[in-house]
Amino acid sequence: MSEFSRLLTRLRESAGHKSAREFYRVAGGRPAFGCTYKQYLNVEAGRHVPGPRLVSALVAVLRLWEHPDRARRFAHAYLRALLGAGEAAEFLLGALATGAGAVTPLKRAIDRDWAARSR
């Protein structure tokens, strides 16, 4: 089971759905998720990484925008599942971890260079 599938299972359960089947059915089934129950179950079991349509549906059904910490964990786990454990995933996660307006070493260097040129 992957980190993403474990997190998805915990989020489903914390939303009050004891089983994957109940969650799939109550959320709207195939029209809402864009996949069959078996395909959804493969995602929750960690046998398949979901595509963008299913991820969008999960974000909506789980109302992740209401919980920024859960949303961040969900996005990080999804990127790791999508990219695997490697430099690409760590680079993207590190880049995304830097909040808007945060001063990165590159930003400091650019600011110093700009200040030196403008004098």
Quick description:
The chain has 119 residues and is an all-alpha fold. The protein has helices at residues 3-14, 20-27, 29-33, 37-44, 52-61, 68-83, 87-97, 105-118.
Question: Count the helices. How many?
Answer: 8
- Structural class assignment: mainly alpha
| Cα-atom radius of gyration | 19 Å
Main pleated-sheet profile = none
Instruction: Extract low-pLDDT stretches.
Output: none
Task: Describe it.
By secondary structure, the chain is mainly alpha-helical. 71% of the residues lie in helices and 0% in strands. It contains eight helices and no strands. Helix 1 (3-14) packs antiparallel against helix 6 and helix 6 packs antiparallel against helix 7 (87-97). The longest helix has 16 residues, at 68-83. The termini are far apart. The model has no long low-confidence stretch (mean pLDDT 86).
List the main descriptive attributes of the protein structure presented here:
119 residues, 0% strand, 8 helices, mainly alpha
Q: Which helices and strands appear, and what pairs or packs with what?
A:
Elements: H1 3-14, H2 20-27, H3 29-33, H4 37-44, H5 52-61, H6 68-83, H7 87-97, H8 105-118
Helix pairs in contact: 1-6, 6-7
